[in-house]
Amino acid sequence: MKHLDRHPIKARRFRSGQLFLAAALALLVALVRCPFRFLTGISCPGCGMTRALLALLRGDLAAAYNYHPLVFLLPAGGLLWLLRRRLPSYAGPLAAGVALALLLAVYITRLTGDSPIVTAEPASGLIAQMVRALTSHP
After folding, report:
1. For residue 33, is it left (φ>0), alpha (ψ between -120 and 50) or beta?
2. What CA–CA distance (Å, rounded) separates 56 from 7?
3. What confidence tens digit (pLDDT) does each residue in 70-123 have?
């Protein structure tokens, strides 16, 4: 974004765009909770993470694990972020790759098992509803 520093008007527009997108996302989350589930009818990979983090902050480790087993990686990720300038350059991408692989593995396990947190009801998603509406014959 260094090129934006030389063009203050472009930089201001870019930041305004970022602010607008953040506000739109916040409004969407406030109104429909999880945008991924709203659109697809399927729980997202991070489903339960907010509840897990709140349980962790209350000290309820069992509930935190039940809501999302990877909640315990959040403090480690925060520590890595704080120490990012002192770590080798490959540490961040490596940690992100491992975290992504773990997230996908846990997501698939929870989605295919009988998790009460992660559910798949694609017919209830907005996309499926729109497809049905467009393909139905009057």
Report:
1. left
2. 45
3. 999 999 989 998 998 999 999 989 999 999 999 999 999 999 988 888 888 999
Domain residue extents for the chain: 1-32, 35-135
Structure tokens at 9: 């008007």
CA distance 121 to 40: 8
Confidence (pTM): 0.67
Residues 62, 68, 69, 73, CA torsion sign: negative
Contact between 80 and 97 under an 8 Å Cβ cutoff? The reply is no
Instruction: Report how far residue 27's alpha carbon sits from residue 39's, in angstroms, rounded to the nearest whole number.
Output: 15
- Tell me, what amino acid is at 58? R
Sequence-ordered list of residues with C-beta below 8 angstroms from that of 118, at least 6 positions apart, any chain: 43, 47, 48, 107, 110, 111
